[in-house]
Each structure stands twice: as C-alpha cells, then as structure tokens.
Amino acid sequence: DITSGNFKLVTERDAYIDELLKIKMTSGNSKIDLTGVNNLPDKIEITVTSGNVDIKLPDWAGMEIEYDVTTGSVKIKDERVQGKGKYNVDTGEKIVKVTVRVTSGNVVVR
Questions:
Q1: 6-30 burial, b if ≥16 CB within 10 A, otherwise e?
Q2: Residue 31 in contact with residue 2, Cβ under 8 Å?
Q3: What ranges make up the beta strands (E) of the chain?
Q4: What was the pLDDT predicted at 86?
Q5: How high is the mean pLDDT in each 10-residue block of the chain (110 residues)?
C-alpha cells in the first residue's frame, strides 16, 4: 500500500513472483515491468485512486484483463477502451488474470 508518490517495479532476469502481485495506491503513478520474470503470478491486482498505471508483461504472456476506470481510459496493446469491462489476449504460454481499478487516471497494459 502506497499513500502518495510513485511506484516503479522492474524485474531482473530470472525473477520469480508467486501467485499474486497486489498494488494499492491512493495517489501517484505506477510503472510495472515484468518482462524479466520467468514465472508470472496467476493474478495481478492494481488499485489506484488517482494516478496512472503502466504495466508491461513478457511477449510470451497472455492476459485476461478486467478493468474499471471511472475517469480516464485503458489502453491494451494498441486498443483504447473506457469505463468498465473485460479484455482478453489469450495467446501465450501462460494466461495472467489482471484486475485494474482506477478512480481517476489512465491505464496502459502492454
């Protein structure tokens, strides 16, 4: 949990994340780069009251994304969506369930 400020997570080569990666921020920006992870978590949960989220997954990963953005937008790969919904990129060695909730801000998933 981060009350205010920016959060950056860049994984090193051969990094391992267990079943769940959970990030909760009241105000700030998050940059999460998981391209160096050999074993992705089954689920990623991101909650931001005010700020932006940028998450990058390895090319070999697929995603099931559930998003809820009150004010702002969600960009998944090259497609921009708004509001509340689900988006699947089911090509990949492993499918990661990603839940993103943002009250005010933008989300980029790539």
A1: ebeeebeeeeebeeebebebeebbb
A2: no
A3: 2-4, 7-10, 15-16, 20-27, 30-33, 37-39, 43-50, 53-56, 61-71, 74-76, 79-81, 84-89, 94-104, 107-109
A4: 93
A5: 77 75 87 86 90 89 92 87 88 87 89
- Is residue 77 within 8 Å of residue 45, measured between CB atoms? no
pTM of full prediction above 0.85: no
pLDDT for the residue 91: 75
Q: Looking up tokens 């809820």, which residue turns up? A: 68
